Known about the structure:
Layout: H1 3-12, H2 16-24, H3 26-37, E1 47-50, H4 88-101, E2 105-107, H5 119-131, E3 135-140, H6 147-156, E4 160-164, H7 170-176, H8 182-198, E5 204-210, H9 219-229, E6 233-236, E7 257-258, E8 267-270, E9 275-277, E10 290-291, H10 297-301, H11 304-314, E11 333-334, H12 343-353
Parallel strand pairs: 1-2, 1-8, 2-3, 3-4, 4-5, 5-6, 7-11
Antiparallel strand pairs: 8-9, 9-10
Amino acid sequence: MSFITEFNQHVQDKNLEGVVDTLKTLPERVTVKLNEYNPLPPTKPARICIELTNRCNLNCPFCLVGQQNLQESVAHDDLNREAGGMDMDLCRKIIADAKKFGIKEILLTFQGEPLMFKRQNFIELVKLSKANGLKTIVFTNGLLLDPVFSRAIVKAGLDVMRFSVDGATQEIYELNRVGGKFEKVRTNMKDMVQIVKEEKSKLQLIWQFIALKNNEHQIEFAEKIAEEIGIPFLIKTFAESIPALVPENPAYHRKYLSKTCHDIYKSIWVYWNGDVVPCCYDLDGKEILGNINQNTIEEIWDGEKYKNLRKRVNEALIHPENEPELCKGCLKYAPPEKLGIDPAAAKLKSYLQQPFLK
């Protein structure tokens, strides 16, 4: 929800506390917007994303984003990596390392459903993250919640919970969240909204709805349900891992960014076993840059493997032959000519940025 929309809603509801809380978010929102227009990336990541488990209670058909050119099926169950869960000692080390490195926020989600992690360990992890000054976020399908677990999560101090719910009826929802029950997640979202109110929590709840060909006709209906529940509604564009699912309405099409990629400077991604990869699209370990069991985050970031990876990504327009194979299946950044941008101008911009990139 935009700042203006959120602010106006609180004014209409005569919710003074809501107005004050929204105003408090203004500096952060302005910073985010300014960073969007900054031609240079940050010098090191502010976010770490950890895979509590790569197991999932669903089998979404479009799950393995970035693998669409490498395997026939991109459903979750076809992930080509050993299944497992992160050890709590490793979780604690990651948080301690993250604080020392200057990380500002932790996303407790990568591949898999994070709420399949042992409940008491998940609660401990949220508390520990908050105690170390990290903004703490989780993306979930929401099906494993119940009122007791939800209340414990709220009391632990979680900052953001995003529900991934791509349908407004069971018939459509189960096409995309295979194995899920829409009424169950709807009830869980409603319960969480109520618990947040009861606990006077500042937990930000979001219903994320990926716009697809099979559900775009339900978006307006879903928005009404969200309004009834009292949860902000976010339409997310589809990373086209299955071309047949691309929505017909152009307004819901993903708008690619021009290479070169700056996302490698924004986040670090960690598998459940401690392996570090540069991107959420690296689902099968094409570019393993180190392991947090053996080294600190700072040592891995400053290591030769990570430096070489960043160099190859930064010079993708100058030396395309050296671009990581991983990047060739990217569904966020595209070559400038694909976007109608003068390749020579894009290459010049890349040359000018090189002295500032490390």
